[in-house]
Please model this.
Amino acid sequence: MLDQQQNYTHFIQQSQDIQAKSYSPLINIQPIKEYTNEIERDWNTLTEKLERNEMALEETLHVTKQYNEKLETVTKWTSEILEQINNLPVVGRQTEDIEKQKDQIQVN
Model:
């Protein structure tokens, strides 16, 4: 974009120089004025859109950082919970085992 800015500035300067030096009625500078105006309008539109896009990207970056921070927190939390679950005592499936565990829980 910086290269284009330099090209644009150079073009506008040349156009203004030509218009300033073209005071002869034999030289029609109207097409130069029109093209210069069109290029200025297009350049202004382009820079406005780029500024809006830059703002949108900055907002997106901010939201992405927030998302990543929350995701890291939840990932850590789920890892800790999964470890706790994996460390829980195994519950027997047979009635006898369940009754023993039930009795142990009531004693504690």
